[in-house]
Structures are given as C-alpha cells and as structure tokens.
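During the no-cost extension, the postdoctoral fellow (Dr. R.K.) reprocessed legacy sequence entries with the updated structure-token encoder. One reprocessed record is reproduced below for audit purposes.
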Amino acid sequence: MSTTDWTFASASEIATAIGQKKISASEMLEHYLARIEQHNPALNAVVALDADNARTAARAADEAIAQGHDIGPLHGVPMTIKEAFDITGMPTTWGLTAYADNIASSDAVAVQRYRQAGAIVFGKTNVPASLSDWQSFNPVYGTTNNPWDLERSPGGSSGGSACALAAGLSALETGSDIGASIRNPAHYCGVYGHKPTFGIITSRGHMLPDWSGYPELDIAVTGPMARSAFDLQTALAAMAGPDDIDATGWQLALPDCDRAALKDFTVGIVYTDEEAEVDSAVQEQLQALKSFLVDAGATVREQHTPDIDSADAHETYLALLRAATSAGADDAAFADLQERAKTTDAKATDYVSRMIRGTTMSHREWLYRNEQRHRMRLKWNEYFSDTDLLLCPAATTVAFEHNQQGERWERMIDVNGKPQPTTTALFWAGYSGHVHLPSTVAPIGLAESHSTPLPVGVQIIGPQYHDYRCIRFAQLLEQHFYRFQPPPNYS
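Re-encoded structure tokens follow.
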C-alpha cells in the first residue's frame, strides 16, 4: 500500500502496519513531511520541525523491526507535539517574543514517554500567546487556520495540534487544558481529545524557564489528541503515571471500563445552560446523538445533571482558573488589577469582574472557593453513583471566524442570532475542569448551517479516575455512530 493510504489512519493502525512491514517508519515520516510542505503554508499548524533527528530515529525504528526486536505500541509512528512542551534542541516560546530564543535542553516527560513507546517526534504545533485564547495566533509564529474553513479558528490553545491531525499532517498529538484547550480544538476541528483526571499525568517540561511546573498548576492537565478514540487509550497509557519524584511513593492504577456496548451505559445529557447558551447547530447534533443512543439501547436521562447550581459552579471555576493563572501577570499588570479590584462589584457576573476578583483574591478567599469546589466534587460523586457519564457541549458554537481585535471578552460570536462574548463558552470548560473530572471530546457530526459544513463534538464527562470509561464510550461512538472525517480539501 502507498503511504497515501495511511494519511488519515489512526496511530495504532500505522504502528501495526510498520510492525508488519507494510510500510516503514521512514516512509511514513517522509509522507507527513511532504504533506506539511504542501498544506502547512495555508494552515500554519506546524511551526517548528526537527526533521534530521526524526529521520535518524525513523531509520533506527525500521532497523529494530528488521532485527526482530521488541517494539512499543507506537513504534515508528510520526507525531507532533504542542509548542508548549519542551523538545531537546527546539524552541519553547508559548508564542511570546520574550522567549523566542528559549531552546529546550531536555524533553518534557510526556515527550520522553512517547519516545519510550516508540513514537517519532518530529515537530511542534502552534498555540496562542501564553496559551490563553480559543484561537491560535501569536507574534512569534502567526495565525493557525481551521482546515474546514481557513477563515475560522481551529481553537486554542492546542489549535495547531487539532489542525495538524485533521489535515493529515501528523499521526498523533498531545495538548494541554485548563480552559478546554484540548477540548475546544477537538470540537472545532473534528478530532478526538482527552482531558484526563487532574494529576494523573505530570506536566514537567510544559513550563517556561521561570517556572518548574512542579507541583502541577491547579486545574491544568496535559493529555492526548488523535484521529481515533482508540489512539487516546494507547496514548494515555503511555503518558500517565507519576514522574520520577512521585514514583518513589505512589503508582497509578486507573480502572478499566467494564461496559462492552452502548446498551450497557446509563448517561445524562444536557444541551444548553442559562449560563452559556448553546447554538442550535450544536444542540441539533447532540439531539441526534441522543436519539441514536436510545435506539442503541442505552439509558438516556435528558437534562439530568448533578445537584449543583450552574451559576455557582461557573463562578467557582472562573475564580479558581484566574487564581491559577494569576502568576502570569507581571508586577505592573497585577498592581493595576489590584487597583481595579477596589471598585469591582463583588456580585457582578460579567467575565471581566469575575476575572479581576479571581486574579486578585486573597488566600483566605481562595480557600473558600476551594471548599466550594470540593463540595461540588462530592455532588458529582453522588451523581455518578447511578449514572455512568454526562454528555454535554464542548463549546457554545462551531468554530468561529477569526477575530483578533480587542480583548477576548470583547470579541463576539453569534449564538442563535444574539452576540455572545467568546469567554462565555468557558462555562463548558469548567463543567468538568475545576472538579478534577476526566472528559473526552469525540466528533459526532457536521453542522450544515454554514456555507461550509463544520464539525461538532460531544464532551463525555466521567467519574474521577474513570478516564477509560470516557474513552470507551467515545470508541463505541466511533464504531457505531460517527468517526473522524477528513476536511474536504485535504483528503
């Protein structure tokens, strides 16, 4: 078979083909490099290449096959990594000009583990500046476009990752997520992404030089992105577990999923919320999924959610999110926010007020919010006592048109004919984010309400540490309902 036949294959399928000598790692690498040369100028998804070292690694992978050596689950699979992860000898800038010359001296732990599993890491994909947007543009590398419509965002902050997968420029990816940075790009580009349970994957090597990345930043996680939910399982198994410090005292043992078929699942499903109205184009696809699940024999409970007030959950998430990211503000910016906090209404519910309060709150206030978080965790645990998963939107709309003017909360998107700040969609990021829960985004269809059909994904939320339950459900959807579809101009 030609390498072209493997362009959009899953990473697991490519690894099997390499192991069976149907294709070679070197051929597959050259194929993706050629596609990058052809398609990346219009997309700007891959922003840095390590082709020479990758070619050396690919030749070694092929030699290992020839000699009959034991190989890993991703042996010979060419993959890219989000720019924010360190790769030896490559820049890690987070899209900031101040770090344009920052060259990593070692691999992030995630990169190390992918290499140990046999993957060939050959490049880096684009991000927004400071990883702080649902678009992926920055002054170092420029703007990444959505392969379904070049005038639209691929999402952020793992936007380059999702774009590269969807356009067939790479076989596997890894992103990071504190505000849906894995989940919204997967939804916008029609690929799979998994936000793992908080703390099960170390983020060491996913930090700028000023920060060690240890211990983990509150809420933030790193996780796999792929064209198949089966790859999510393989990649999560490769990535997960403590680093060398924590491994002295603990080991990870995630439970397997014991549900074999869709009919074995009891799921809740929610289509929208007063805190973050969801566009009808997204709701319609979720309704279609619900109908399919009922026909498949699953128990589906509509509008069935934990006993948690949505407004309280959103307020708590934004407070903890902005507290977690407050260290990113320099002294002058933080001093300005402290001044603004003095005149900010303590009960105002607009994003700016919540952002200011969260960024500047005292440690005592943070402890109160943390207490609220853990009460919500108990409510979620009670919810999952008789419900396997909760299905909900990943964002309020399909991928929106590029808009780089003003601040994020000033940029509007159309939701059911009404303007909505792009930051409102953070509600669906926080749904599982601050309470430590795993969630997988899987594509479920195309919205036809625009001139170009655009992908829609579902967010699959599970109990803490039941990551494989979320992924298993996504696998069953992939097998029986809807699977990854290449964008028309890249197939």
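The first strand starts at residue 46 and ends at 49. The longest helix spans residues 363-383. The remaining legacy entries will be reprocessed before the final report is submitted.
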